[in-house]
Amino acid sequence: MGNLPSPAFAPRRLSSAQRKELQDKLGMDCMQFYNFGVCGETGAGKSTLVNAVCGYQEGDPSAAAVGHIGGGTRHARAYKPAKYPRVAIWDMPGTNHPDNPMNTYFSDQKLCAFDLLFIVSSTVRFTEVDAKLALRAQREGVPVIFIRTQADATIHNAYERAVRSAAVENAANRRTIAKEVRKDLYKAIVKELNNIGMANVLLFIVTAFAFYEQYDPELYPELDKEQLLDRIEALAETRGRK
Ligand SMILES: Nc1nc2c(ncn2[C@@H]2O[C@H](COP(=O)(O)OP(=O)(O)O)[C@@H](O)[C@H]2O)c(=O)[nH]1
Ligand SMILES: [Mg+2]
Questions:
Q1: Which residue's CA lies nearest to atom 28 of ligand 1?
Q2: What is the average per-residue pLDDT within 150-158?
Q3: CA of 42 to the centre of ligand 1 (A)
Q4: Is residue 173 within 8 Å of residue 184, measured between CB atoms?
Q5: Is the N end or the C end of the chain the one with fewer CB atoms within 10 Å?
Q6: How many CA atoms lie within 13 A of 17 on its CB side?
Q7: Distance CA 88, CA 187 (A)
Q8: Is the distance from CB of 162 to CB of 177 less than 8 angstroms?
Q9: CATH code reported for the domain at 30-238
Q10: Residues lining ligand 1, judged by CB closer than 6 Å?
Q11: How far are the Cα atoms of 29, 63, 121 from residue 60, in angstroms, in the given order?
């Protein structure tokens, strides 16, 4: 499903005055960096995913704060992973935050200036706000990729259910269950995306924990980790070319 989002050159959409304003107000460099915006509800797992992509370990002073109940990220903030020199990945405020009214979120957060938006969810359903945001982004020419994160929890639940019903006997079957869960999630989310008129967008199913070297592949299967990182790298490289 989905094609490579065309490497839209966001700066073309912006006047030099707008670029200057973005630089001055947000510290956003539209010329040298490929700016990814990570959007979604508070609690979806945006900050955790930003840290995972950047390779920040728990407690790293550079890392985005995680799990701030009720608060969450109030202002957009850029993180620059050392391994991708042209990438700025922005942890955006929750799309359901009371301080961020949904009908002005797109313009308030200057989403037009981003090269690509990730819409992150930890459930099968995307909220109305996220769906609207994605549609608006498409209309404005900003490519969107959907990410279903926290899939490890879904896999764990399915595994526990299977163990209780004696459908599995040993941990080796966890991999089989992970594959089935991924397939089911994919199917269910693609259906959802079709329902909201977003057929033909990319979807990645991930767990943030699999981005770390010390992860246990039995507990946290890789899922679409490599595909997501490859995509980030490939898109960011387009920024370096004339
Ligand atoms: N099991 C699991 N938990 C996660 C994952 N990603 C995030 N979480 C947890 O979900 C909660 C919310 O994550 P956070 O990154 O703060 O969400 P945000 O509000 O969207 O930035 C935290 O308790 C995280 O530890 C994941 O991939 N797997
Ligand atoms: Mg956050």
A1: 150
A2: 93
A3: 9
A4: no
A5: C
A6: 0
A7: 31
A8: yes
A9: 3.40.50.300
A10: 40, 42-48, 66-67, 72, 94, 149-150, 152-153, 207-209
A11: 24, 5, 24
Distance 43 CA to ligand 1 centre (A): 6
Q: Whose CA is nearest to atom 24 of ligand 1?
A: 67
pTM of the model: 0.92
Q: Atom 23 of ligand 1 has which residue's CA nearest to it?
A: 67
The CA distance from 106 to 133, in Å, is 7
Ligand nearest 156 Cα, by number? 1
Cα–chain center distance at 129? 15
Q: Which two tokens stand for residue 137?
A: 């982004």
202 is written with which tokens?
């990319």
Angle, helices 151-164/173-195, rounded to nearest 10 degrees: 120
CB neighbourhood size of 98 (10 A): 7
Among 53-57, 68-72, 96-100, 165-169, the range with the most confident prediction by mean pLDDT is 53-57
Count the Cβ atoms, other than its own, within 10 Å of residue 37: 26
Ligand 1 atom 12 nearest Cα: 43
Minimum-distance ligand 1 atom for the alpha carbon of 208? 27
- From ligand 1's centre to the CA of 163, what distance in Å? 25
Out of 42, 48, 148, give the residue to mutate to test ligand 1, the one with the largest number of ligand atoms within 8 Å of its CB. Answer: 48
Q: Where in the chain are the domains? A: 30-238
CA 133 to chain CA centroid, nearest Å: 14
Instruction: Say what the pLDDT of residue 169 is.
Output: 64
198 CA from centroid of ligand 1 (Å): 25
Q: With 90 as the cut, is the pLDDT of residue 75 above it? A: no
Helix (H, G, I), strand (E, B) or coil at 121: strand
Digit-coded pLDDT (tens) for 15-43: 889 999 999 999 999 989 999 999 999 99
